[in-house]
Amino acid sequence: MSRPQPLSGFPELLPRQRIVEQQVVDHLRRAFELHGFANLQTRAVEPMDQLLRKGETSKEVYVLRRLQADDRDASDAELGLHFDLTVPFARYVLENAGKLNFPFRRYQIQPVWRGERPQGGRYREFWQADIDIVDLGELPAHYEVEVALVVADALKGLPLPKVRMHVNNRKLSQGFYQGLGIRDTEEALRIIDKLDKIGRDATAKLLIDGVDATPEQAEACLKLASISAEDSSFVDEIRALGVADPLLEEGLTELAAVVDAAAAAAPGFVVADMKIARGLDYYTGTVYEVFIEGEEHLGSVCSGGRYDKLASDGKNTYPGVGLSIGVSRLLVPLLQAGKLDATREVPTCVLVALNHEDDRPASNAIAQRLRARGIPVQVSPSAAKFGKQIKFADKRGIPFVLFTNDEGTQIKDIRSGDQATVDLDTWNPPAEDLHPRITAA
Amino acid sequence: MSRPQPLSGFPELLPRQRIVEQQVVDHLRRAFELHGFANLQTRAVEPMDQLLRKGETSKEVYVLRRLQADDRDASDAELGLHFDLTVPFARYVLENAGKLNFPFRRYQIQPVWRGERPQGGRYREFWQADIDIVDLGELPAHYEVEVALVVADALKGLPLPKVRMHVNNRKLSQGFYQGLGIRDTEEALRIIDKLDKIGRDATAKLLIDGVDATPEQAEACLKLASISAEDSSFVDEIRALGVADPLLEEGLTELAAVVDAAAAAAPGFVVADMKIARGLDYYTGTVYEVFIEGEEHLGSVCSGGRYDKLASDGKNTYPGVGLSIGVSRLLVPLLQAGKLDATREVPTCVLVALNHEDDRPASNAIAQRLRARGIPVQVSPSAAKFGKQIKFADKRGIPFVLFTNDEGTQIKDIRSGDQATVDLDTWNPPAEDLHPRITAA
Fold it and tell me: Mind telling me which CDD domains this protein's record contains (chains A, B) (predicted)?
């Protein structure tokens, strides 16, 4: 077999890059669990009819077939790989509703697959980390505040470029358009969603052509979209535009609550931004998009919103609010550019050197004593010259080599060359050396 | 949408079952890392020509197609979902050989997919946890001892039924057959692999018909297959059969080393068992199969072996040794039978009760103070009557409810009803209540 080539759109990591990804995912998991979110893992496949319910993404689905399917399988439903974690979660909630306690909060960290053409920051297989809170019948608005705070907490303390969450509220925008006298408020939202791409003039024209807006109405929509603030001062700015509508008022109250709570809990993280529209129809309240500061053109690295009908089985409706962090989208470019790295490429903290191959059982026993106290250890591959054994450690970034000589058990820090006799039952590496750490360039 | 039905062969877990699975996987991961194994995650897909290299499993592959593939994609390689973690690992090693340090030890915990008919303990999507050590050119035999010890360590301390690892060595069996005068030793191995299913007489007949064995040779093969021991006493038993062959001697030495080391490090876990053959052609040294004791008929829950040619690019050859733990195969039946459970269905240790909805920001602040010390907390969904808030905690198994009254901050253990005034900056739950724990029925 000749050397295989990477598959475009299916990024894979080297061991030291994977250590970074693993620690970031561990950090997210820990944050989600501290906020009481339970983990779920759904199967990778869904019946095609489930996946095609949202028209918009249907073109991206990978369809499965069994290589040797036979007649007896005719009854098998056609299956495809999930393209997000929301569709499987909604299906899971309906399937297991009788066994779940609502409000139900879950996180889910899994790969998703989209058959789209791979290009800058877009992959065919990538990891997402989702949180959602779903309730039965009614979902209180305070959860729209909470999920923003959970994500603020989860992204805090990670060695990532500075990110900010831009929030808006569907009721606010749609109420404003309604108050202006625009009828097709959903279409107006979809047009405003294009503002950053096509510019003010083209957007105004689309509003005039697409939703029968007067030039004055279009101008008011653009004025609204230009408002942003880190606190609830946007409320007065919007009121100053002179539009009155009960839905607008609801939206103002809800958005102010999100922004004020976030300003108190995570100063500088959340900004109210009236041009955030999110193209998808199913959002009904707060909508969120997180951008890398100064790199907004790359698109959001985390997004979500409130949907009054995450799932419904005809009898019951399950409203929800959630956010999805694009783990691969955030990390893979930083890893590939060498902007994030790990202090070593193995978990190993100590290499136990061998004087002679016959000592291997004794060295294994020494390794087990350290492992029993949580220290990752491996034993040297061979009783080569001591310099060669040190080189083995050095190449992998293993900081300590343990060896036995006439003076007893010695541990050498191969970075400094410092060496000392140690007691195997009490010696500990410095806390920062116990596990690999992430370093940022 | 009506209530969706589960898909046969794609097991999914309820939140409390998932907590068990998550903790088992965490335990395996920790054990592998303590032994210096680095984690890898490979993509879910491989080109079909890679997947079809092993004829045996080709019928089980799920092939992918993009729903809206167009002409420009004609150059795309046909892709399928991986059916194990060995084929992707071998491909990864070849693809990245220049960037890896050998010997390279990695673990990989991912789902795999097989399109086979779902039946008792067989799934179409299931999780495996693999460890492998791979080297460039030569792989010392001591790694065949080591991987057995790592798996012994990894399975130790899990609330699972008692399992035992049955080991044999290909050189031993093939050397013995060779010494007897049987030519097609690989076919003889494949026949002996069927012994448990078809019995002694049918096996003897197959040996006579299939590899031209005399009745005496067939009898000697069956005698060898009947030998098993928890220590290296099997060596003398085999020698007593009077067959001499250099390959047999190598196998005896290597298997004795594995069994003796394992008997010292993990007494009772490993048993030398000469009827273990493993049907696959590519094993060349030690072979391993782990069975649940008394449930050997269910098949192995972990298996593997040494292969001298895990991968080869024509110039270099990469021998390896590895084991694969069938995580779903081990856990799903136990979870579905209710034999394993978790002490609660959420990570949450403390529910912060609300006196009034206006107190939510203050309650969030209290929750954050506890989270900062690693305690998973959530705030009550509403300022309902206190009894209702306790019921919310009780239904999920959350052990503690925190509330504020005239006497200050109180924490109630809702299982005992005990209640005490606490200092938020020093209170800790008992260690066994901090996180959910696994319980075994």
Answer: HisRS-like_core (cd00773)
Phi, psi of A56 (to 5 degrees): -55, -40
Could you list the mean pLDDT of each consecutive 10-residue stretch along chain B, which spans 441 residues? 87 98 98 98 94 66 84 70 95 96 98 84 92 96 95 92 94 96 92 91 95 95 96 96 96 95 91 85 91 85 92 91 96 93 98 96 95 98 96 98 92 96 96 96 81
Closest-approach residue (CA) in chain B for A145: B361
> What are the residue ranges spanned by the domains of chain A?
15-341, 350-440
Q: Quick one: how far is CA B263 from the chain centroid? A: 22
CATH 3.30.930.10 describes domain A15-341: yes
A166 near A39, Cβ under 8 Å? Answer: no
In this prediction, residue A317 carries a pLDDT of 95
From its phi and psi, is residue A86 left (phi > 0), alpha (psi between -120 and 50) or beta? alpha
Q: How close A200 comes to chain B (CA, Å)?
A: 34
> Can you say whether the dihedral through the CA atoms of A238, A242, A247, A249 is positive or negative?
positive
Give the CATH class of B1-158+295-342.
alpha beta
Contacts within 8 Å (CB) and 24+ apart, A73-79: A77/A47, A77/A48, A77/A49, A77/B7, A78/A47, A78/A48, A79/A45, A79/A46, A79/A47, A79/A48, A79/B7
Contact B108, A21 (CB under 8 A): no
What does A219-257 look like in DSSP terms, one character per residue? Answer: HHHHHHHT-EESSTTHHHHHHTTT---HHHHHHHHHHHH
Q: Chain A residues with CB inside 8 Å of B364's CB?
A: 146, 149, 261, 265
Prior bond to A103 cis, omega within 30?
Answer: yes
- Packing angle of the helix pair B142-155, B246-265 (nearest 10 deg): 30
Q: Is B66 close to A115, i.e. CB distance below 8 A?
A: yes
Phi, psi of A400 (to 5 degrees): -120, 140
**Cβ distance of A314 and B375 shorter than 8 Å:** no
Q: Across the beta sheet with A350-352, what order do the strands follow?
A: A377-379, A350-352, A400-405, A408-413, A419-421
Q: Are B361 and B309 in contact (CB under 8 A)?
A: no
d(CA A351, CA A289): 46
Amino acid at position B153, single letter: D
Nearest Cα neighbor of B120 from B8, B253, B5 is B8
Measure B294 CA to nearest chain A CA, in Å.
Answer: 30
Amino acid at B186: E
Please list every residue in chain B whose beta carbon sits closer than 8 Å to the beta carbon of residue A53: 1
Going by DSSP bridges, is the β-strand pair A350-352/A400-405 parallel, antiparallel, or unpaired? parallel
Give the ipTM of the model, two decimals please. Answer: 0.95
In sequence order, the β-bridge partners of residue A401 are A351, A412
Q: Domain B350-440 is in which class?
A: alpha beta
